[in-house]
Amino acid sequence: MTSFWFISAPLPGHADWGGMLKTAQVLRAKGHSVLWVSQSPLGPMVQKAGIDFAPVTETGWLWPPPPLPDPKSLQPAQAIFLRYKRALDTWLSEDLIPPAVEALTGLAKERGTPDVIVSDPFLTAAAFTAEALNVPLAVAGWPAGQPLDEDRLLAVQAELGRISRERLERLSGQLGLRGVNFSSGATPSVQSPHLHVSFFSRRWYQADPDFLPQTEFVGGSPTPPQSPVPDWLAAIPPETPLALITLGSTFTGDLGFFSWAAQAAARLGLVPIVVLGGNPIDPAEKARLKAALPAHTRLLTWVDYDHVFPRLKVIVHHGGMGTTHRAVIQGVPQVVVPHAADQRGQARRVAQAKVGLNLSAHDVQSGQLLPAIRAVTTDKRILDNAAQLASEFAALGGPPRAAQLLLRVAHERVI
Q: Which of 72, 75, 106, 251 has its CA 20 to 30 A from that of 117?
């Protein structure tokens, strides 16, 4: 029996990446020891999936990130820099990472050292912990990229790269480690020398440079529901076309997006399913949103993708990796309105693969959601491309293939 730790930030999306949690389930079903490690808010979701959970006091992930000043008080270049630095602070906090490494190595003393650590792509403390425990690290959900050419970086990228390198050097010195699980070059990131598992395909990244050889693309395919159909969904006749509208579990404050998308979907004869996510919303704001939605809209805080996606005609969303992945493997056309971070890359790749459209916030405000939804639900080329890409992902093996690759890492360590 091989022992695996899956370590993630305490956010639902960071347990996914297209198949991280499902890979843990496959390994457990094969009889291996699987422990998910994160802060306590993630515990109920992981345990519901049948995976043992160990809470730690700190994972090193800063959330929520520091608030931005009023953009009107900043020059455009300053505003761009602060937005990027805010993202950097979430995964590379010098205050939070040392206590997180201490908590994780302390857990190893209590529970035993795992054979392999599988990490969220942005969890710096997990990368340091793997080195401290002399355990191979595998990264779930993100390819290992070639170093960027420093001469081609924008000024803001070069400056943030310098800050990143200096922080990693200080953290490595403080922890007495070499930083073996980080990339070199101008813009360092968490990088395993052993394995990066992407739950997409190489063609999905068609416009990206070549990836390092430890990257494996495993795609994925839908899984059957593990629970009864929820009452609200069972009450909708099966022939009714549905549109899922979501900003995931984190970037949920754009209430105008929900009402505009729902109104556009309803005008095209679709029943809008608006999912707000778990972040608290002011009751008065929620009441105003509800009043702005079409009368037959289902307004929810969470849905089971396994039940909902087979019923969808379209999804309008933010471009989160897990949501984008699920739409791809289900063959559902997409309209993506990215809000932050890697969502812009996912939106761009949706358009490149011709399985949907990439809209900006300006496009939404200027009334482009309705023609976009109409286009992706009626254009035969988009529908055919979506079905073909879903078949391509399924052929790559998904979480069962990812589990095989992780077992190979453990076997190579033993040898």
A: 251
Same-domain status, 19 and 91? yes
Residues 198 and 54 in one domain: yes
226 within some domain: no
Q: pTM score > 0.90 for this model?
A: yes
User: In terms of residue numbers, what domain contains 104?
Assistant: 3-220+396-414
Q: What percentage of the chain carries pLDDT values higher than 70?
A: 97
Q: Tell me phi and psi for residue 245, to 5 degrees.
A: -125, 115
Cα(189)–Cα(217) distance, rounded to whole angstroms? Answer: 19
pLDDT tens for each residue of 122-149: 999 999 999 999 999 999 999 998 877 7
Based on the fold, state whether residues 154 and 216 are members of the same structural domain. yes
Q: How far apart are CA 211 and CA 395, in angstroms?
A: 20
SS3 of residue 293 by DSSP = coil
**What's the pLDDT at 285?**
87
10 Å CB burial of residue 98 (0-12, 13-18, 19+) is middle
Task: Determine if the peptide bond prior to 280 is cis (ω within 30°).
Answer: no
- Going from the C-alpha of 75 to that of each of 69, 82, 225, 361, the distances in angstroms are 12, 11, 50, 21
DSSP per-residue string spanning 118-179: EE-TT-HHHHHHHHHHT--EEEES---BPPP-GGG--HHHHHHHHHHHHHHHHHHHHHT---
pLDDT band of 251, cuts 50, 70, 90: low
Give domain status of residue 225, yes or no.
no
- Residue 52: strand pairing partners: 35
CA distance 192 to 196: 7
In a domain, residue 188? The reply is yes
Q: Is 54 helix (H, G, I), strand (E, B) or coil?
A: strand
Q: Is 22 in the same domain as 86? A: yes
Q: Is pLDDT above 90 for 370?
A: yes
Q: Is 28's pLDDT higher than 70?
A: yes
**Does the pLDDT value for residue 97 go beyond 70?**
yes
Give the count of domains, the chain.
2
What would the two tokens of residue 401 be? 């293939």
78 lies in the same domain as 184? yes
- pLDDT over 70 at 250, yes or no: no
CATH label of the domain that carries residue 88: 3.40.50.2000
Do 140 and 172 lie in a common domain?
yes
Which residue in 201, 192, 141, 181 sits closest to 21, CA to CA? 141
